[in-house]
Design a protein that fits this description.
- The model has no long low-confidence stretch (mean pLDDT about 80).
- It contains 5 helices and 2 strands; from the N terminus they run αααββαα.
- It has one domain.
- By secondary structure, it is mainly α.
């Protein structure tokens, strides 16, 4: 396989995400996910400039954020208690 062919295969995986539903997920949650995926798929060129491609071909968002505040319940509770 050539480098160009490998690059083309790697490009097919760009923007992969994982989503899952839990016991408390609602129809509205599923609709919101579908809407977001359609938006991203339809406007991919708008999102590409927001990411840097690393030497290992991973992508990293140019805007850094505090993942603890976003993804950890403790961070959300701490922020709520601080107000």
């Amino acid at each position: 396989m050539t480098d160009e062919e490998l690059e083309a295969i790697a490009d097919l995986h760009r923007g992969m995400v994982r989503a899952s539903f839990g016991i408390y997920s609602t129809t509205e949650d599923a609709d919101a996910l579908a809407t977001a995926v359609r938006e991203i798929a339809s406007n991919g060129a708008r999102y590409v400039p927001r990411y840097d491609r690393l030497p290992n071909t991973d992508y990293v968002h140019k805007t850094r954020f505090d993942h603890i505040q976003v993804f950890v319940v403790r961070g959300a509770v701490d922020a709520w208690l601080a107000h």
